[in-house]
Amino acid sequence: MFKYTLVLLSLLTGSAQASQAIGFYSNGKLKDSSNVNTDSQFIKLFHKREKNFTTQEMHIELNKLSNLINRMYPSAEKIQVGDLSAQFGGKATRHKSHQNGLDADIVYLRHNGFEQAPTNPEWAEYFVKSSQVSKNFHKVRNWYMLDYLAHNTDANRIFVDRAIKAYYCKEKLNSKKYTQKELKRNIATLRLLRPAKYHKTHLHLRLKCPKGDTKCKNQAAVPGGSGCNSLDVINTEVN
To answer: Where are the domains of the chain?
Structure first.
């Protein structure tokens, strides 16, 4: 915990200027970015893609998530993070988004605890097959992670595969299993889970513009409700 506190302090005070997210997620830049190859508690994948930079706010949130999962599930694998942004933001290969430091790809948690090698050039595993969630997709731990991100970060959206949202819609809206208070929280989490293509391997966290980043443009808030009545794949918000 002491080491983790030092990491957060270094991220908050280590640079003369705070990072700045500029513009929109699909048309933006990143100033004074944070390099996650230093002082990170998670595994950073795809180093050669050079999408290893983000805002200080995102870097801190990823470290907090990694530390939390390690404490809650000591037998779980480390959090594994894919593409972030380029050092100065801007167009990112393979993506329409990831331009202003507020997007992060995070591998789903597994039953077998496998940790992908950072040198592997592609995702090691698909967690949705024939429109069904795979056996290795850890449904309990992944819900814990998604619920945490929805309620304890400044998340704007969390993109997941359609089958993953469909599973949690069926599971988490069961009034026989959950109290009204629990259902209300579940609905709020599900609201932020946005079904999207190309997310069978990872979730995609998008944060809101940090306070003080006056040149940053937020994406519109998601509609109310759980979003479970319309699971159409979203093509215009991501990638």
So the answer is: 18-207
Question: For the chain, which ranges sit under pLDDT 50?
Answer: 2-7, 9, 12-14
80 DSSP β-pair partners: 43
Phi, psi (rounded to 5 degrees) for 84: -115, -115
State residue 236's pLDDT score: 64
Q: What is the pLDDT of residue 13?
A: 45
- CB distance 208 to 218 below 8 Å: yes
Report the CATH number of the 18-207 domain.
Answer: 3.30.1380.10
Q: Which two tokens stand for residue 227?
A: 């979003």
- Start-to-end C-alpha separation, the chain: 35
In 3D, which of 86, 82, 8 has the Cα closest to residue 40? 8
- Residue 84 burial (10 A CB sphere; 0-12, 13-18, 19+): buried
Q: How far apart are CA 98 and CA 95, in angstroms?
A: 7
- Answer whether 0.85 is exceeded by the pTM: yes
Q: Which helix (H) or strand (E) holds 168?
A: helix 162-172
> Phi and psi at residue 13, in whole multiples of 5°?
-120, -5
